[in-house]
Amino acid sequence: MSLTKIYVIAIAICFILFAGCVGSDDSNIPPEDTTPVPTATYEPDPQPSETVANTIDVETVGLNEILTIQNPQVNAEISVDEVIRGSRANTIVAESSPESDMFSSEPVHGYEYLMVHIRIKNTDDYSLAVSPYFDLPVYASGGSYDQESVDLEGYQVLEPTTLLSDEEINGWIVYMVPVGERVVLAYEPLLPDEPLGFIRLS
């Protein structure tokens, strides 16, 4: 065998060995976990924008006080006259759930049900759309919580509707909130889609 052939074979062997060293072996690398991890959306206490703040006085009231909303989009009066929370609310929701319900009605660990009785009156000359799920979130511990879809036996639930001028509606909304935390109800209609007022619930 000629010296040239020996050199060629030696170079080829070195190339193969080098390629094997730099190549990555993925057989021992565990696959990435692609399971989505649920995360809560937290935000600072809601505040009206400068546009809203310049056109109306955003106020905060307590139980049995009337929150008066007056701006170019919405004119209404909102009040809360009763709140049920904790073990009593948990029991009411549990006893109201049908036995055939495949989902547990018990609150998540560290949370409790909050039942709020709300009155809304349209004081505008035009009709007012009321959507409890979108218009009336509550805030606690920097988090926002919407209406829970649960049955309430013996309690009239506040349903989505449209109020004519001077028309009024009342009913219950159920939320799931952190145990023992301070909670405020916000009125956030679709327009302008930001807090126009607050009601302290605890």
From TrEMBL:
Pfam families: DUF4352. This is DUF4352 domain-containing protein. It comes from Methanogenium marinum. The keyword S-adenosyl-L-methionine does not apply. Keywords: Signal. Residues 95-187 form the DUF4352 domain. InterPro entries: DUF4352, Immunoprotect_excell_Ig-like. The keyword Signal applies. Residues 29-50 are annotated as: Disordered.
